[in-house]
Every structure is written in C-alpha cells, then in structure tokens.
Write a structure and sequence with these properties.
35% helix; methyltransferase activity; 13 helices; two-stranded antiparallel sheet; transferase; Prob_Methyltransferase; SAM-dependent_MTases_sf; 16% strand; binds 2-acetamido-2-deoxy-beta-D-glucopyranose
Length: 419
C-alpha cells in the first residue's frame, strides 16, 4: 500500500490535452491531484518506525480507533477530490447533462462532443472562441441507446440502424450527434423527372424497409398508419389522388380556394405531419414550394416524399422549427397538431408556427379531430389569442368507424401584422 491511484476514467488523456488550454480550472485540477496523492502517500506510508512524535504516540498506544478515524478522513478527502475532478472534467467537456466519464461511452461520442478551439482564436464578429457540437440534452436519458448509436467504425459503413436513430429522436434525443460513417444508400433506380415524379409509381425497392413492419407498399396501403394517412402511399387508385382537389365534406377545403384567399402571395409553405407528401405535390403543381415535416413512423415517409421530387424534412414536432422568423407564406397542419400533454406544449408549438409564418400569411388547420368539446374550446381559445383573421372556420361532425360522432375543426386563418 504505497500509494493510491485515482481512477477518473480516461481523465489522464484529457488532462494532457487540457494543459494546452491553460485555464484556471486546469491548475486547480493539477493542485487537487497532487495534494490528494501526497495526502494518501502520507497516510499509507506512515508506520510505527516513523520518528514523529505523533506516530510514536499512536504506535505506543495501538489506538486502532484513532487510526481508522484518520484513514476514513483521508478516504473521504479522496472521494470528495474525485467528485471535484469529475465535475471539472464535465466542465472541461462542456456537457453537464451527458456524463462522458462513464465507462461505456464510445470514444466517437467524446470526439464529436469535444469542444473545438477556433484555429485563429476569438472570432471578432461573434465573440466565439470555440465550437460546440450540438446534441439534444435529453440524449442523456437514453445514454445506452446513444452509446449504441455511436459505436461504429470510423470511415466504414454505418450500421443499418436508422430506426435506432428515430427511437432516440422520439425519446427527445434531438438533434442526434453527427457520425463519421457512410450511411446505407439504396440505389434509386427509376426515379422520374419532375413533374412526372409527383404521381407516378416507382419500384418500392428504392425505399428503406429495414426496421419497418411492412415490407412493401401494398402492406402500407392496407393499414391506417395515422389519422392523416390511410392508404396514403397509393397514388394510383386510392383517395390520395382526390385530396385537396375534391371535397368529401364541408371540412375539406380546396387548395385553389385557399390559394385565392392568399391573393397570389403564396409561394412557399410548411406542411406539418404531411404524410406521403400529397399536399406538397398538389401545391407544386401550382408552383408553390412546400417543405414537408415528417418522421418515418411505421413507414418510409421521408424516402417516399423525396422520390416524388419533394422536400421532406426529418424532424419531430418537439424540435424548434429550423427556419428563421416569417420564412413561410403558408403553414398547413392536420392532426399533427395533436401532440397531447400539458396545454403549454401546444402553446409552444403554436407560437413557433406563428413565428415562421409571415404577416399576412395563412395558417390552414385541416380536419383537426377534437376528441372532446373541452379540447375544441382549448384550441379555439389558443388560436383566438393570436388574433388571426378567420377567413374560414368550420366545425363539423362525422360518424367514425365505430359509429360514434367526432368533431372536426377546419380553418384558414390569416396572420395579422403586429407592431
Ligand atoms: C511529544 O509530544 C509531547 C506532547 O506534545 C511532548 O511533551 C514531548 O516532549 C514530545 N516528545 C518528543 C520526543 O518530541
Ligand atoms: C484512543 O483514542 C481515542 C480518541 O482520541 C480516545 O478516546 C481513547 O481513549 C483512546 N484509546 C486508548 C486505548 O488509548
Ligand atoms: C403502383 O403501386 C401499387 C402498390 O405497390 C400497385 O398496386 C399498383 O399496381 C402500381 N401501379 C402501377 C401503374 O404500376
Ligand atoms: C407554373 O410555372 C410554370 C413555369 O413558370 C408555368 O408555365 C405554369 O403556368 C405555372 N403554373 C401555375 C399553375 O401557375
């Protein structure tokens, strides 16, 4: 028992790197390591043959309880120093919420999260001295999955694990860390030129089916994937072809009517939870560019939209929209708005929608199912709080498959100019 070694993960390596940074924290860390080790050395090398009065005294009386008291004091000291070191290590890495000192963290995750000093020092315009990689703070809650996600061979092929990534996103780990591996790429044979691509079938072999229950389009089309997509992958025979251009009930608005309300100023739009991209396709035919937000929940939505020559955006609704204020002329949402949870959650989402919509732009709420009257009231109150002009507002009832009546809200609202 000559000395005590301090286990701080691979803190040694990081410590070396840290000396370059020459921060006060590093000096403190050095001091802490030295004092802790000296203290420990002293405690464990002290023995009766030492000539200090104190030790002789102890040896003489064989006062075991005093010795053990001292030892436990030292151990407490070591323990608290270790905690301090772990804290400093976290501060150095800059990720308070993700504990990178845990043993099972892949090096690649540490590499990604490591702060990078700007090569030319402080940027004069932004005042930034280092770059910080972004990753969702909730990734910490799914650290095992995240570790699994970041275990791959650098420069090699990525594991076929997009569904693992999506699981992380759905658990709030968004954005995901970047990876240095080649994502699986499926040959996209038979893609058609635009605008034929909008409605023509292509071989289903070009979609990614791994991690999805269905393995072909026929299977997808036999299912109600969500409220806004039942048979939405059937571009030939199904109802999909009629959406937005034919009405089924008073809650359905025609695209041309809505565009007329925008008096020609609708050039871009954002479709939230846009299924297989049919809204974007119909808008594209009218020279309006739509970005469709979608995840691949139970179906290859993103691949499918892309194959139609449209713009899928792989994003959960918990993520702040990656657009600057007033970016869009139109926002279209159907039951994607039904995000559940506390009322504040819907409020945060509505404020973000409001933010990316320009003044005079249109918010199209399309057949939103209000499962009960209370829900309708809450949503109505929330919408009214924004002071939009109600260009269309229809509350309709429909009998569902189970024979129960359901209340649907459809509306086209115009964002006011606020000063
Ligand atoms: C040891 O300490 C005691 C009490 O502090 C003192 O009286 C004594 O002289 C010391 N002996 C030696 C050898 O230093
Ligand atoms: C050992 O040390 C403790 C604390 O200083 C004291 O209370 C106790 O009487 C000592 N015992 C002996 C046997 O000297
Ligand atoms: C289009 O795809 C669907 C589903 O895979 C299939 O049933 C249908 O026969 C295809 N239509 C054409 C014209 O290829
Ligand atoms: C869309 O743009 C093209 C090319 O500018 C034009 O020929 C076509 O008439 C436009 N379509 C509509 C519906 O405005």
């Amino acid at each position: 028992m000559g000395s005590v070694s301090l286990k701080i993960g691979d803190g040694t390596a990081r410590f070396k790197r840290a000396t370059f940074c020459s921060s006060a924290v590093n000096l403190l860390m050095l001091f802490s390591v030295i004092t802790t080790n000296l203290f420990a050395l002293y405690a464990f090398t002290s023995s009766p043959k030492d000539h200090t009065n104190h030790s002789l005294h102890l040896a003489h009386h064989k006062n075991i309880s005093l010795i053990s008291e001292q030892v436990s004091l030292i151990l407490r000291e070591i323990d608290s120093s270790q905690k301090k070191l772990t804290q400093m290590e976290k501060e150095l890495l800059g990720y308070e919420s993700i504990d990178l000192s845990q043993p099972n963290i892949p090096t690649e995750l540490k590499n990604f999260l490591q702060h990078h000093q700007l090569p030319l020092g402080k940027d004069s315009r932004t005042g930034i001295t280092e770059m910080v990689a972004s990753v969702g703070h909730s990734c910490e809650r799914s650290l095992d999955l995240l570790a699994q996600y970041m275990k791959y061979k650098v420069n090699g092929p990525c594991p076929d694990d997009w569904s693992l990534g999506q699981r992380l996103i759905l658990q709030g780990c968004e954005p995901l860390p970047r990876r240095r591996c080649f994502a699986k790429s499926i040959p996209k044979v038979g893609l058609l030129p635009y605008p034929n691509s909008l409605w023509k079938n292509v071989s289903e072999k070009i979609y990614s089916w791994s991690g999805i229950g269905c393995k072909n389009l026929a299977c997808l089309n036999s299912k109600k994937l969500n409220r806004d997509c039942s048979g939405c992958f059937d571009l030939v025979n199904g109802y999909e072809k009629e959406r937005f251009v034919k009405v089924r009930g008073k809650n359905d608005f025609l695209i041309d009517d809505v565009l007329a309300l925008g008096s020609g100023g609708t050039r871009t739009g954002f479709d939230i939870g846009g299924g297989s991209g049919t809204f974007a396709a119909r808008m594209a035919e009218r020279n309006v560019t739509i970005v469709t937000a979608t995840l691949n929940v139970d179906a290859p939505f993103s691949d499918f939209i892309a194959a139609r020559g449209l713009f899928p955006m792989y994003l959960s609704l918990n993520h702040r929209f990656p657009f600057y204020d007033s970016a869009f002329d139109l926002v279209h949402v159907a039951n994607g708005l039904d995000i559940g949870g506390r009322p504040e959650i819907l409020e945060f989402l509505m404020f973000d929608i409001d933010r990316i919509l320009r003044a005079g732009g249109l918010f199209w709420l399309d057949n939103f199912l209000c499962t009960n009257d209370e829900k309708k009231k809450v949503l109505t109150r929330l919408i009214e709080q924004f002071g939009y002009k109600k260009l269309k507002w229809i509350v309709g009832e429909r009998i569902n498959g189970g024979g129960n009546s359901e209340v649907y809200l459809s509306a086209v609202l115009q964002k006011p100019v606020r000063v």
